[in-house]
Amino acid sequence: MKVSPAVNAPERADRWLGRFWRGAAHREARAIHWLAAKGVPAQVVRLLFLGVKLVVLALLLYSMFWIAVLIILAWGVMRFAILAGLGSDHPEPEWRTGPAGFGLYTYDGHRIDPHVHDDDD
Predict the structure, then answer these.
(1) What is the pLDDT of residue 6?
(2) pLDDT value of residue 44
(3) DSSP label at 88?
(4) Which of 5, 27, 55, 106 is 20 to 30 A distant from 37 in Cα terms?
(5) Can you give the pLDDT at residue 119?
């Protein structure tokens, strides 16, 4: 006997989307037949459903456009903040004369470069 291969996530998603699409097409056909039974011409109903699909597509594209604009603006603001140094909380260490002599000091006065106390005489 041959063992059937395991179905992975993309295949499951593909099958789910296929079932959804077939179900939507089936419901659309039922609605067209129902409206045709009520006396509405089938061509008018098909055009109505096409219009609804186009409006939904336009709304999706419009919302995706603004989401993309917001993402690009957020990226630009973060890039500007990084380049301007707005993200750093403390200033860089600097060379100056402090309590332990001349050396590299942090913003709060601690010397961070290695030094020898005996040579300070």
Answers:
(1) 80
(2) 93
(3) -
(4) 55
(5) 56
